[in-house]
Amino acid sequence: MIIGKSNKIYVQTICRMTVKPTEGPLTSRLAEQLQELSQQGVQRQLLTFFPQGSACLQHQNSTYLNLAGNDYLGLASNLSLLQRFYAHLEQEDLSNNLSLYGLGSGASRLMTGNHDQYARLEERLTRYYHKDKALIFNSGYHINIGLLPALARKGDLILADKLCHASLIDGMRLSEARMIRFPHLDYDRLEQLLKKHNSTAKPCKQQAVFIVTESIFSMDGDCADLSTLVRLKEQYGATLYVDEAHAVGVRGRCGSGLAEEQQVIDQIDLLVGTFGKAWGGQGAFVVCGETIYKYLVTTARSLIFTTALPPVNIHWLNFILPQIQTMSKERKKLGQLGQQLRHGFQANGLQTGGESNIIPVIIGDEKQTLVLAEQLRQQGVWIQAVRTPTVPRGTARLRLSLTANMNTDQLAALPQQIAKELARLKLAPSPAP
C-alpha cells in the first residue's frame, strides 16, 4: 500500500486526500454571528505582548506605555525581586527544591497536589486578615464561580450590585438561588429589597440572603461603602460577600484592601482577593469563618475538580506577602497619580470618574472607542477599549489602569492627547456629569 512505501509518499498522499470539511449548521451560525459582532465593533482577538519594565510593553517591535494592565505595584515586572526570588535556586541542587520551584503540582488539592506552600500561605493569610481560615483557588474566576454555587441553595436570595464583575454574575447564575441586581451603589434600594424579602420570608425556610459587591469596581474605579453594607447585613441577618480583586495590595495601611481602609474586615463574611493583580502572581483566596471554610473544601466544585497551582506559583506569593505589607509609599503614589489624572481629564472636558487607580474615560459608541484607542496606540500609549458585554451598551470607554512604576511625566500630556484625538476624529466627548 502507499502508506508503507516511504514517509515522503505518505505525506503527499495524505495531502492529496485532505478534503475541506463541509460547514455544518453550527459553523454557519457562528460565522454569521461573528460578522454581526465585527460590524458592532465588539469582536475580540488575542494579541502577543512582551513586558519591558517601567510600565511599558512591546507589541510587534513597538514599545508602548502600558495603561491596560493590572500589575498595580509593579511586582510582576520587578527584576530585582525576581533575582532575589530565584537566587536560592541558583545556589542549591534543583532536586532539593521541587517543593519550592516545581512547575507542576501533579494533582488536584484534594488528591496529592496540596503541597506545603499552600498550607504556609493560607496560614499567613489568616494572620494577615485576622480571620479563622483562608482558602486558595486557581484564579479570581475560579473562586467567583465556586463560592455561591457551593453556599447558596434553592430558596436563598442573592442581592448584587448591578456592576459586579462577570465572574460574580456567572457564579450567581450557577447557583440555585434567586438573584436580584440593585442599581449601582444604591444602598437605599438594597435596603428596600432587604426589608421586602425579610418580611415575607418564613423562618422555617431558613432562607439565606447574600449581599454581593466588589470593593473597587473594575470598570468604573469607584468604591463601595463597606461600612453601610456591614450595617445592612447585620441589621437584616445577611451574609456579606466582598470581592477585593482591585483593592488588595493597593488600599489599606498594610495593603490588605478597602476593608482594612474602612476598618470592617472583621464584619465581612466572605472576603475575596486575587493574586493576579497587585500581587503580581496567580490565584485567588477567600478569608472566612471555619465552618464556611470546611463546607467549601467539601463542596466547591471549582476547587475540587481542577489541578492545583504549581509550587513555584505559591512560593512566589509567600515571598511577595511581606513585600506587600511594606509598600505604603507605592500605595500613596498610586492614589496621587489617579487624582492628578482625573483632574486633568475633567479640565479637558472628558467624562471620567472613580476614586482609585482605575480611571475610565467614557466615550459611549463602541466603534468610536475602538478607533480612538487605535489612534492613541499609534502615539505610543496602549489603552484598552472596553465594550459590551464588559460594560453596558452605550457606555463604551477607555479604561486606564495606573501602576506604581509610572511617573507623573509619563501621564502629564495624556488628558490633552485624548481630547485632541476626540476633536480630530470629530467625536464629541460625552458630557461631563
Question: How would the blueprint of this fold be written?
Answer:
Blueprint: H1 7-17, H2 25-40, E1 50-53, E2 56-59, E3 62-66, H3 79-91, H4 98-101, H5 116-129, E4 133-137, H6 140-144, H7 147-151, E5 157-161, H8 166-174, E6 178-182, H9 187-200, E7 209-214, H10 226-236, E8 239-243, H11 258-261, E9 270-274, E10 284-288, H12 290-299, H13 301-304, H14 311-325, H15 328-347, E11 358-364, H16 366-377, E12 381-382, E13 384-386, E14 396-401, H17 408-411, H18 414-424
Parallel strand pairs: 3-12, 5-6, 5-7, 7-8, 8-9
Antiparallel strand pairs: 1-2, 2-3, 4-10, 9-10, 11-14, 13-14
Helix pairs in contact: 5-14, 9-10, 15-18
Structural description of this entry:
- The chain folds into 2 domains: 50-73 and 328-424, Alpha-Beta Complex (Aspartate Aminotransferase, domain 1), CATH 3.90.1150; 88-325, Type I PLP-dependent aspartate aminotransferase-like (Major domain) (Aspartate Aminotransferase, domain 2, 3-Layer(aba) Sandwich).
- Helix content is 42%, strand content 15%.
- It is built from 18 helices and 14 strands.
- It has helices at residues 7-17, 25-40, 79-91, 98-101, 116-129, 140-144, 147-151, 166-174, 187-200, 226-236, 258-261, 290-299, 301-304, 311-325, 328-347, 366-377, 408-411, 414-424, and strands at 50-53, 56-59, 62-66, 133-137, 157-161, 178-182, 209-214, 239-243, 270-274, 284-288, 358-364, 381-382, 384-386, 396-401.
- The strands form 3 sheets. The chain has a 7-stranded mixed β-sheet with strand order 4-10-9-8-7-5-6, sandwiched between helices. A 4-stranded mixed β-sheet has the order 1-2-3-12.
- Helix 5 (116-129) runs parallel beside helix 14, helix 9 runs parallel beside helix 10 (226-236) and helix 15 (328-347) packs parallel to helix 18.
